[in-house]
Amino acid sequence: MSAMNRGMRLGMALGVVALIAIAVLIWLQQQQREDGYEVPPGGPIILTSTQGEFSLSDLADDQVAVVFFGYTHCPDVCPLSLAVVRQTLARLDDGERKRVVPLMISVDPERDDIERLKEYVGFFGPQFIGATGNQEQLEDIAERYGVFWRKVDTDDSAMGYTVDHSASLFIVDNEGDILKQVVYSPVPQALTSALEQVFSES
């Protein structure tokens, strides 16, 4: 057997081992998420919103809120996430669509007043609600929903700062129970599947 053939076989063998290792790692990560992850407690959300005072308790018993934490100056994750919610709503039938209340909570109250939020969420549809509060209110809700955010100064940008933040979507009922937490995805399949599962169980 030539040295070249031995090298090719060794390379192929190492490639197979690497693929197996990657597959095992992905499986272990999935197991950790499924077996070791605890859903945050959630709880009430009462905030000033683009439609007056918003409270989860005002939802009907068959309704859920899809809650997202972000900010209007966000360059990528926020508009993509809200677009995913819009695409998901388009996939649902009329009855299911009426059961979903999309809510974006701004973690940038310094810049995101209600007028700014109204303009921003209006791009995604009339049913979208924008809400925010003072620092104490936001920190309380964020802690209960397992959300983090922090300001990052950007001296070389006209914006002055950006906000790093969690990007999960939360499907929440009118008692503040988190029924599903959907990790960030630029496509609507995961959220659509989660909502359909929630509806099938209620």
Write the layout of secondary structure elements.
Blueprint: H1 3-36, E1 46-49, E2 52-55, E3 64-70, H2 77-91, H3 94-97, E4 100-106, H4 114-122, E5 129-132, H5 135-144, E6 149-154, E7 160-165, E8 169-172, E9 178-182, H6 189-201
What order do the strands of the largest sheet run in, or round the barrel if closed? 2-1-5-4-3-8-9
Mean pLDDT: 86
Uncertain residue ranges: 13-35
Name the beta content range. Answer: 15-25%
User: Total strand count, please?
Assistant: 9
Written description of the protein model:
With 202 residues, this protein is of the alpha+beta class. The chain is built from 6 helices and 9 strands, in the order αβββααβαβαββββα. The chain has helices spanning 3-36, 77-91, 94-97, 114-122, 135-144, 189-201, and strands at residues 46-49, 52-55, 64-70, 100-106, 129-132, 149-154, 160-165, 169-172, 178-182. It has a 7-stranded mixed β-sheet with strand order 2-1-5-4-3-8-9, with helices on one face. Strands 6-7 form a two-stranded antiparallel ribbon. The protein is globular and about 50 Å long. The model is unreliable at 13-35 (pLDDT under 50).
